[in-house]
Amino acid sequence: MSLSVRFLGTSAARPTVERNVSSLAVVREGETLLFDCGEGTQRQMMRYGISFALNDVFITHFHGDHIIGVIGLFRTLALQGRTEPMRMFGPRGAARVLKGAAQFGVDRVGFPVEITEVAPGQRIERDGYAIIPFATVHSSEVSIGYTLVEEDRKGRFDPDLARSLGVPEGPLWGKIHKGESVTLDDGRVIEPSVLVGPRRTGRSLAITGDTRPSEATIEAARGADLLIHEATFADEEAARASETGHSTAREAAGVAAAAGVRRLALTHFSARYSRDPGALLKEARELFDQVVLARDGMELEIPFADDRTDGAGGAKTATESAALER
To answer: Which of 140, 188, 202, 307 is deepest in the core (most CB within 10 A)?
Structure first.
Protein backbone atom coordinates (compact mmCIF):
# COMPACT_ATOMS: atom_id res chain seq x y z
CA MET A 1 0.00 0.00 0.00
CA SER A 2 1.72 3.15 -1.21
CA LEU A 3 1.97 6.44 0.67
CA SER A 4 3.96 9.34 -0.75
CA VAL A 5 4.34 13.11 -0.60
CA ARG A 6 4.88 15.32 -3.64
CA PHE A 7 6.09 18.87 -2.97
CA LEU A 8 4.38 21.33 -5.32
CA GLY A 9 5.70 24.55 -3.82
CA THR A 10 8.53 25.09 -1.33
CA SER A 11 9.04 28.86 -1.27
CA ALA A 12 7.91 31.23 1.48
CA ALA A 13 5.76 34.31 0.84
CA ARG A 14 6.42 34.64 -2.89
CA PRO A 15 7.45 32.44 -5.81
CA THR A 16 11.00 32.44 -7.11
CA VAL A 17 12.52 31.18 -10.34
CA GLU A 18 13.32 27.87 -8.65
CA ARG A 19 10.36 27.45 -6.30
CA ASN A 20 6.61 28.02 -6.22
CA VAL A 21 4.71 28.98 -3.07
CA SER A 22 3.26 26.53 -0.58
CA SER A 23 1.44 23.38 -1.58
CA LEU A 24 1.99 19.65 -1.31
CA ALA A 25 0.06 16.55 -2.30
CA VAL A 26 -0.20 13.36 -0.27
CA VAL A 27 -1.06 10.31 -2.37
CA ARG A 28 -2.26 7.17 -0.58
CA GLU A 29 -3.31 4.19 -2.69
CA GLY A 30 -4.38 6.45 -5.53
CA GLU A 31 -6.28 8.88 -3.27
CA THR A 32 -4.91 12.43 -3.45
CA LEU A 33 -5.04 14.94 -0.58
CA LEU A 34 -3.91 18.53 -1.20
CA PHE A 35 -2.42 20.53 1.68
CA ASP A 36 -2.42 24.30 1.08
CA CYS A 37 -2.90 25.76 -2.37
CA GLY A 38 -0.63 28.71 -3.10
CA GLU A 39 -0.63 30.70 -6.32
CA GLY A 40 0.09 28.52 -9.36
CA THR A 41 -0.63 25.21 -7.62
CA GLN A 42 -2.74 23.91 -10.51
CA ARG A 43 0.18 24.34 -12.91
CA GLN A 44 2.47 22.52 -10.50
CA MET A 45 -0.05 19.69 -10.30
CA MET A 46 0.02 19.34 -14.09
CA ARG A 47 3.79 19.61 -14.18
CA TYR A 48 4.37 16.91 -11.57
CA GLY A 49 1.55 14.50 -12.43
CA ILE A 50 -0.91 15.16 -9.61
CA SER A 51 -4.47 14.29 -10.58
CA PHE A 52 -7.21 16.92 -10.64
CA ALA A 53 -9.55 14.15 -9.50
CA LEU A 54 -8.80 14.93 -5.87
CA ASN A 55 -11.64 15.41 -3.39
CA ASP A 56 -9.93 17.02 -0.38
CA VAL A 57 -8.09 20.30 0.23
CA PHE A 58 -6.67 21.02 3.68
CA ILE A 59 -5.65 24.61 4.48
CA THR A 60 -3.29 25.44 7.36
CA HIS A 61 -4.02 29.19 7.52
CA PHE A 62 -5.25 32.05 5.38
CA HIS A 63 -2.14 33.92 4.26
CA GLY A 64 -2.22 34.50 0.51
CA ASP A 65 0.77 32.29 -0.32
CA HIS A 66 -1.20 29.32 1.04
CA ILE A 67 -4.68 29.88 -0.44
CA ILE A 68 -4.63 32.10 -3.56
CA GLY A 69 -4.19 29.05 -5.80
CA VAL A 70 -7.70 27.88 -4.86
CA ILE A 71 -9.07 30.52 -7.25
CA GLY A 72 -7.27 29.13 -10.30
CA LEU A 73 -7.74 25.50 -9.34
CA PHE A 74 -11.49 25.83 -8.92
CA ARG A 75 -11.85 27.79 -12.16
CA THR A 76 -10.08 25.00 -14.05
CA LEU A 77 -12.21 22.33 -12.38
CA ALA A 78 -15.36 24.26 -13.31
CA LEU A 79 -14.25 24.60 -16.92
CA GLN A 80 -13.54 20.87 -17.02
CA GLY A 81 -17.15 20.19 -16.04
CA ARG A 82 -16.46 18.69 -12.65
CA THR A 83 -19.60 17.53 -10.80
CA GLU A 84 -18.12 15.61 -7.85
CA PRO A 85 -18.11 17.37 -4.46
CA MET A 86 -14.93 19.02 -3.20
CA ARG A 87 -14.26 18.88 0.53
CA MET A 88 -12.28 21.74 2.05
CA PHE A 89 -10.96 21.91 5.61
CA GLY A 90 -9.37 24.74 7.51
CA PRO A 91 -9.18 26.47 10.90
CA ARG A 92 -11.77 28.85 12.32
CA GLY A 93 -12.85 31.33 9.64
CA ALA A 94 -12.51 28.84 6.79
CA ALA A 95 -16.17 29.03 5.76
CA ARG A 96 -15.97 32.74 4.99
CA VAL A 97 -12.51 32.83 3.42
CA LEU A 98 -12.61 29.64 1.37
CA LYS A 99 -16.13 30.19 0.05
CA GLY A 100 -15.01 33.50 -1.41
CA ALA A 101 -11.84 32.03 -2.90
CA ALA A 102 -13.68 29.06 -4.41
CA GLN A 103 -16.23 31.26 -6.18
CA PHE A 104 -13.98 34.13 -7.26
CA GLY A 105 -13.57 34.35 -11.04
CA VAL A 106 -15.91 31.44 -11.75
CA ASP A 107 -19.18 32.13 -13.56
CA ARG A 108 -20.72 29.02 -12.06
CA VAL A 109 -19.26 26.39 -9.77
CA GLY A 110 -20.90 23.25 -11.12
CA PHE A 111 -19.88 21.07 -8.21
CA PRO A 112 -20.69 21.17 -4.47
CA VAL A 113 -18.05 22.72 -2.22
CA GLU A 114 -18.24 21.41 1.34
CA ILE A 115 -16.25 23.58 3.77
CA THR A 116 -15.56 22.33 7.30
CA GLU A 117 -13.92 24.36 10.05
CA VAL A 118 -11.82 22.08 12.24
CA ALA A 119 -10.20 22.56 15.62
CA PRO A 120 -7.04 20.96 17.01
CA GLY A 121 -7.68 17.36 17.97
CA GLN A 122 -10.83 17.04 15.85
CA ARG A 123 -10.31 13.76 13.97
CA ILE A 124 -11.37 13.45 10.36
CA GLU A 125 -11.97 9.72 10.00
CA ARG A 126 -11.30 7.97 6.70
CA ASP A 127 -11.10 4.37 5.53
CA GLY A 128 -7.94 3.03 7.14
CA TYR A 129 -6.57 6.34 8.43
CA ALA A 130 -7.45 9.66 10.04
CA ILE A 131 -6.44 13.28 9.53
CA ILE A 132 -5.93 15.06 12.86
CA PRO A 133 -5.44 18.86 13.05
CA PHE A 134 -3.06 20.27 15.66
CA ALA A 135 -2.38 23.80 16.89
CA THR A 136 0.50 25.77 15.41
CA VAL A 137 1.94 29.18 16.34
CA HIS A 138 2.09 31.66 13.45
CA SER A 139 1.90 35.42 14.05
CA SER A 140 -1.60 36.53 15.03
CA GLU A 141 -3.35 34.23 12.56
CA VAL A 142 -5.42 31.19 13.48
CA SER A 143 -3.32 28.34 12.12
CA ILE A 144 -3.17 24.56 12.29
CA GLY A 145 -1.08 21.67 11.07
CA TYR A 146 -2.27 18.19 10.15
CA THR A 147 -1.17 14.66 10.91
CA LEU A 148 -2.14 11.64 8.81
CA VAL A 149 -2.25 8.55 11.01
CA GLU A 150 -2.95 5.09 9.60
CA GLU A 151 -4.70 2.32 11.51
CA ASP A 152 -2.63 -0.63 12.72
CA ARG A 153 -2.35 -3.55 10.32
CA LYS A 154 -2.90 -7.25 10.89
CA GLY A 155 0.08 -9.30 11.97
CA ARG A 156 1.94 -11.44 9.43
CA PHE A 157 0.45 -14.84 8.66
CA ASP A 158 2.96 -17.73 8.63
CA PRO A 159 1.99 -19.96 5.64
CA ASP A 160 4.87 -22.43 6.13
CA LEU A 161 3.86 -23.12 9.72
CA ALA A 162 0.22 -23.42 8.65
CA ARG A 163 1.12 -26.11 6.13
CA SER A 164 3.27 -27.98 8.65
CA LEU A 165 0.33 -28.02 11.08
CA GLY A 166 -1.91 -29.44 8.39
CA VAL A 167 -4.12 -26.38 7.98
CA PRO A 168 -5.42 -26.61 4.41
CA GLU A 169 -4.79 -23.60 2.24
CA GLY A 170 -7.94 -21.61 1.46
CA PRO A 171 -10.79 -20.14 3.54
CA LEU A 172 -9.36 -21.38 6.86
CA TRP A 173 -6.22 -19.30 6.31
CA GLY A 174 -8.38 -16.23 5.81
CA LYS A 175 -10.36 -16.87 8.97
CA ILE A 176 -7.23 -17.33 11.04
CA HIS A 177 -5.70 -14.13 9.65
CA LYS A 178 -8.91 -12.28 10.61
CA GLY A 179 -8.47 -13.44 14.22
CA GLU A 180 -10.82 -16.44 14.24
CA SER A 181 -9.91 -19.82 15.69
CA VAL A 182 -10.63 -22.82 13.43
CA THR A 183 -11.29 -26.50 14.06
CA LEU A 184 -9.60 -29.00 11.76
CA ASP A 185 -11.14 -32.28 10.59
CA ASP A 186 -9.12 -34.19 13.22
CA GLY A 187 -10.59 -32.06 16.01
CA ARG A 188 -7.58 -29.87 16.65
CA VAL A 189 -8.33 -26.19 17.33
CA ILE A 190 -5.87 -23.72 15.83
CA GLU A 191 -5.77 -20.34 17.54
CA PRO A 192 -4.83 -17.23 15.53
CA SER A 193 -1.93 -16.46 17.89
CA VAL A 194 -0.19 -19.62 16.66
CA LEU A 195 -0.01 -18.50 13.03
CA VAL A 196 -0.39 -14.71 13.12
CA GLY A 197 2.21 -12.35 14.50
CA PRO A 198 1.54 -9.18 16.51
CA ARG A 199 -0.31 -6.29 14.88
CA ARG A 200 1.92 -3.91 12.95
CA THR A 201 1.76 -0.16 13.25
CA GLY A 202 0.56 1.97 10.36
CA ARG A 203 2.45 4.97 9.05
CA SER A 204 2.16 8.56 10.20
CA LEU A 205 2.96 11.91 8.64
CA ALA A 206 2.91 15.42 10.19
CA ILE A 207 2.63 18.65 8.17
CA THR A 208 3.11 21.91 10.08
CA GLY A 209 2.27 24.72 7.67
CA ASP A 210 3.80 27.98 8.96
CA THR A 211 4.74 27.94 12.64
CA ARG A 212 7.19 28.65 15.39
CA PRO A 213 8.59 25.51 17.03
CA SER A 214 6.09 24.36 19.66
CA GLU A 215 5.23 21.62 22.14
CA ALA A 216 1.98 21.05 20.26
CA THR A 217 3.91 20.17 17.10
CA ILE A 218 6.24 17.90 19.04
CA GLU A 219 3.32 15.98 20.51
CA ALA A 220 1.46 15.78 17.20
CA ALA A 221 4.55 14.47 15.40
CA ARG A 222 5.63 12.05 18.14
CA GLY A 223 7.22 9.02 16.45
CA ALA A 224 6.06 10.06 12.97
CA ASP A 225 7.61 8.44 9.92
CA LEU A 226 7.94 11.89 8.31
CA LEU A 227 7.71 15.41 9.69
CA ILE A 228 7.36 18.21 7.13
CA HIS A 229 8.34 21.38 8.97
CA GLU A 230 8.76 24.88 7.69
CA ALA A 231 12.30 26.32 7.82
CA THR A 232 11.97 29.84 6.50
CA PHE A 233 15.31 31.12 7.78
CA ALA A 234 18.82 30.14 8.81
CA ASP A 235 20.38 31.05 12.16
CA GLU A 236 21.43 34.45 10.80
CA GLU A 237 17.75 35.46 10.72
CA ALA A 238 16.65 33.83 13.99
CA ALA A 239 15.29 37.11 15.35
CA ARG A 240 13.24 37.70 12.21
CA ALA A 241 11.90 34.15 12.37
CA SER A 242 10.65 34.82 15.88
CA GLU A 243 9.13 38.16 14.93
CA THR A 244 7.23 36.77 11.94
CA GLY A 245 6.03 33.50 13.46
CA HIS A 246 8.37 31.26 11.50
CA SER A 247 11.13 28.76 12.30
CA THR A 248 14.78 28.39 11.48
CA ALA A 249 16.13 25.13 10.09
CA ARG A 250 17.87 24.46 13.40
CA GLU A 251 14.64 25.00 15.31
CA ALA A 252 12.77 22.63 13.00
CA ALA A 253 15.47 20.02 13.56
CA GLY A 254 15.07 20.49 17.30
CA VAL A 255 11.37 19.71 16.97
CA ALA A 256 12.16 16.58 14.94
CA ALA A 257 14.67 15.38 17.52
CA ALA A 258 12.33 16.03 20.45
CA ALA A 259 9.46 14.25 18.69
CA GLY A 260 11.59 11.24 17.77
CA VAL A 261 10.52 11.26 14.13
CA ARG A 262 12.24 9.01 11.62
CA ARG A 263 12.75 11.63 8.94
CA LEU A 264 12.47 15.41 8.57
CA ALA A 265 11.74 17.33 5.38
CA LEU A 266 12.34 21.09 5.49
CA THR A 267 10.30 23.42 3.29
CA HIS A 268 8.96 27.01 3.01
CA PHE A 269 12.31 28.70 2.37
CA SER A 270 12.82 32.44 2.24
CA ALA A 271 13.73 33.69 -1.24
CA ARG A 272 17.28 34.39 -0.09
CA TYR A 273 17.86 30.61 0.18
CA SER A 274 15.98 29.64 -2.97
CA ARG A 275 18.99 28.76 -5.09
CA ASP A 276 21.36 27.66 -2.36
CA PRO A 277 19.68 26.32 0.78
CA GLY A 278 22.85 24.50 1.85
CA ALA A 279 23.19 26.55 5.04
CA LEU A 280 19.75 25.35 6.15
CA LEU A 281 20.72 21.72 5.68
CA LYS A 282 24.03 22.17 7.50
CA GLU A 283 22.43 23.85 10.51
CA ALA A 284 19.60 21.32 10.73
CA ARG A 285 21.97 18.35 10.60
CA GLU A 286 23.83 19.60 13.63
CA LEU A 287 20.76 18.53 15.62
CA PHE A 288 19.11 15.84 13.47
CA ASP A 289 20.75 13.52 10.91
CA GLN A 290 17.85 12.27 8.83
CA VAL A 291 16.84 15.51 7.12
CA VAL A 292 16.25 16.51 3.50
CA LEU A 293 15.57 19.87 1.91
CA ALA A 294 12.37 19.80 -0.13
CA ARG A 295 12.37 21.10 -3.68
CA ASP A 296 9.52 21.55 -6.10
CA GLY A 297 8.62 18.22 -7.67
CA MET A 298 10.39 16.10 -5.06
CA GLU A 299 8.57 12.90 -4.14
CA LEU A 300 9.16 11.18 -0.81
CA GLU A 301 7.84 7.68 -0.28
CA ILE A 302 6.86 6.59 3.21
CA PRO A 303 7.33 2.84 3.61
CA PHE A 304 6.05 0.66 6.43
CA ALA A 305 8.51 0.15 9.27
CA ASP A 306 9.05 -3.50 8.31
CA ASP A 307 9.72 -2.58 4.66
CA ARG A 308 12.42 0.03 5.22
CA THR A 309 15.82 -0.33 3.57
CA ASP A 310 17.54 2.28 5.74
CA GLY A 311 17.22 3.80 9.19
CA ALA A 312 15.25 6.85 8.09
CA GLY A 313 12.24 5.56 6.26
CA GLY A 314 13.04 5.53 2.57
CA ALA A 315 15.79 4.36 0.26
CA LYS A 316 15.73 7.66 -1.64
CA THR A 317 16.90 9.76 1.28
CA ALA A 318 20.65 9.69 0.74
CA THR A 319 20.37 10.22 -3.01
CA GLU A 320 18.02 13.15 -2.65
CA SER A 321 20.15 14.78 0.03
CA ALA A 322 23.29 14.46 -2.04
CA ALA A 323 21.57 15.93 -5.07
CA LEU A 324 20.37 18.91 -3.07
CA GLU A 325 23.82 19.59 -1.67
CA ARG A 326 25.47 19.74 -5.10
So the answer is: 202
